[in-house]
Amino acid sequence: MEFETVKGKIEGWLQPVLAEKNFFLVEVRVLMGRKIEVYIDSDGGIQIEDCATVSRFLEKNLDGSGLVPDNYILEVSSPGMDNPLRVPRQYKKRIGRILEVVKNDGTRIEAQLEEADDEKIKLKEVIQEKKKNHKAEKNGQNIEAPREYSVKYDEIKRAVLQFKF
User: Fold this and answer.
1) Which of 6, 98, 112, 124 could bridge across to 162 with cysteines, CB 3.0–4.6 Å?
2) What is the architecture of the domain spanning 3-77?
3) How are strands ordered across the β-sheet holding 120-124?
4) Tens digit of pLDDT for each residue in 83-107?
5) pTM for the full model?
């Protein structure tokens, strides 16, 4: 069976179940025809019990469906903090966080996520104190204003959360 068909079927099965629990689907991956990875999320986070419930639901639908081999492997989890953001709802729940965004043209932006809607995100550069002081000295107290960016989702190649320790 074609990977896209399996993926589409899983997405269709999951939509009503996830909506009922106020979860959302981030991604379905079908790897080498037998391993299926499903990433789910919610505005309040996902618990291991939630993943187990969704996994059992999918197993009932996949077993005997003929879509996957009998020895398929199914993994259901939340995307994790180091996985790229994929859907607008993920961005919306991370407003205020620092993102590294790589655009399709290769442009790299590291900035704070200020806004997110269904079509684009708005980012604002964070100027660190050390960088501010250096610019002030260099420019005779003429501190440069932080840059702001508006990026449509279809322009984003990859966006990941940045963690500063």
Assistant:
1) 98
2) 2-Layer Sandwich (3.30)
3) 148-152, 120-124, 108-116, 98-103, 156-161
4) 899 999 999 999 999 999 999 999 9
5) 0.79
